[in-house]
Design a protein that fits this description.
430 residues; 16 helices; mainly alpha; Amino acid/polyamine transporter I
Length: 430
């Protein structure tokens, strides 16, 4: 007999949903990418950001369309399951979960790179371990205590990271010269595949809000709007920050590239401003991950793909506490064993593979939906032109992925398959 589980409450409105998307995207990526992109692509860098940002906006548009067909949690898992069956749905969910867990770890590693400017000892193995436990453990507790506590933290982190970045752009734009807008020749990029994934890593994560569907007010309208508008706005911000960076900074610092930009624009006080902004940005993204990713394992458990332990709701706080704690431990283990580039590339690849499956599910979902649902669903201009272009960029990213990222990902995919079949066997025996 299946036990009836407590329901999650709908507390997330349009503003909060946009903040979740913003924090899902803006984290360590923009604080780590400019240096690497500048050194490899030069003046082509800002335009690569604009190009891939436009493609990611198309991907987000597809997800917005998919979200308009459903009112229950599960997001991409539900889309893939409805289109291709439960095994594919589970693998999509597992890919996205791995992507979020590795992102949590990657973001925390970048946090240490910026924090090292305040305290050099932060990069010692013991200090990292202690700080990983304190940061991830603290944010885990905040998320277990309830969505209101998590959203208060996300709203605060959003303001503290967005405002300094916008001021940095406004003060930096006068430094941009006409000759610094366009490249005079096409640069030779040493590792195009890794660079593509690093650019995409700065954009992926928008899908996190889809796992809060059961806690979102009017999700069929709120989620598509939050997805599309926020991704477009972030693309513009990324383009401008890279443009300002390439026109101002002459000193390579790929670990913490915005430090020097802050120094030029704000003076010596800019170093502290950028460091603090980076810390708040990364903390915001980590909070967003710990808010949204556990809803994924929660949904998988409700569907019977994972053990019911993951679907238990805290009796006092009405949060998926077990799923939140599990992610905290998982992210901690990944963080202390990996580096930013390694974790970021694997995170981007995992999510792009999931994006491909979800985009392919769109025409099937639309075909299966009843007439009333199709009429209310988000319309895509040009028919399936946008999904085709979105699918193209995802396939290009996969084709150019470095081989080492596949080895890492294959291990996690194998683990996912193993968990699925172990749970299936347990259910059949029960």
């Amino acid at each position: 007999m299946r036990v009836k589980l407590p329901k999650l409450k709908r507390r997330i409105g349009s503003f909060a949903a946009s903040f979740i998307v913003l924090n899902g995207i803006i984290g360590a990526g923009i604080f780590a990418l400019p240096g690497e992109l500048s050194s490899q692509a030069g003046l082509l860098g800002p335009w690569l950001i604009l190009l891939f940002g436009a493609f990611i906006a198309m991907v987000a548009w597809c997800f917005g369309a998919l979200a308009s067909y459903f009112k229950t949690s599960g997001g991409p898992v539900t889309y893939a399951s409805q289109a291709f069956g439960p095994i594919v749905g589970f693998q999509v969910g597992w890919l996205l979960y791995v992507g979020r867990a590795t992102s949590l770890a990657a973001n925390t590693n970048v946090l240490f790179n910026y924090a090292a400017y305040f305290w050099e000892g932060v990069n010692s193995e013991f200090s990292k371990l202690v700080l990983f436990i304190v940061i991830i453990g603290g944010l885990t507790v905040v998320n277990v205590m309830g969505i209101k506590s998590a959203m208060k933290a996300i709203n605060l982190f959003s303001l503290l990271k967005v405002l300094p970045i916008l001021v940095l752009i406004l003060l930096g734009l006068p430094y941009v010269s006409p000759t610094g807008l366009l490249p005079t020749d096409f640069p030779v990029i040493d590792d195009f595949g890794t660079l593509i994934l690093l650019i995409l890593y700065a954009f992926v994560g928008f899908e996190c809000v889809l796992f809060t569907t059961e806690e979102t007010k009017n999700p069929t309208k709120t989620l598509p709007k939050a997805l599309i508008t926020t991704v477009v706005a972030i693309t513009v911000v990324y383009f401008l920050i890279q443009l300002v960076y390439i026109n101002i900074v002459t000193i390579d610092n790929n670990d913490a590239p915005l430090i020097e930009l802050g120094r030029v624009v704000f003076g010596e006080a800019g170093v502290s401003i950028i460091i603090i902004t980076a810390l708040f940005s990364i903390m915001g993204t980590a909070t967003s991950i710990l808010l949204t990713a556990p809803r994924l394992t929660f949904s998988l458990a409700k569907d019977g793909s994972l053990p019911q332990w993951f679907s238990r709701v805290h009796t006092k706080y009405n949060t998926p506490a077990n799923s939140i704690i599990f992610l905290g431990v998982f992210g901690l283990l990944l963080g202390i064993t990996g580096t930013f580039v390694y974790l970021a590339v694997a995170s981007a690849l995992a999510r792009i593979l999931a994006y491909i499956i979800c985009i392919l599910s769109l025409p099937i979902i639309r075909k299966k939906a009843d007439q009333a649902t199709r009429k209310k669903a988000l319309k895509l201009p040009g028919g399936f032109l946008i999904p085709c272009l979105a699918l193209l960029v995802c396939i290009v990213a996969v084709v150019y992925s470095p081989p080492q990222s596949w080895f890492y990902l294959f291990g996690f995919l194998s683990l996912g398959v193993l968990l699925y079949f172990i749970n299936s066997r347990h259910k059949s025996e029960a």
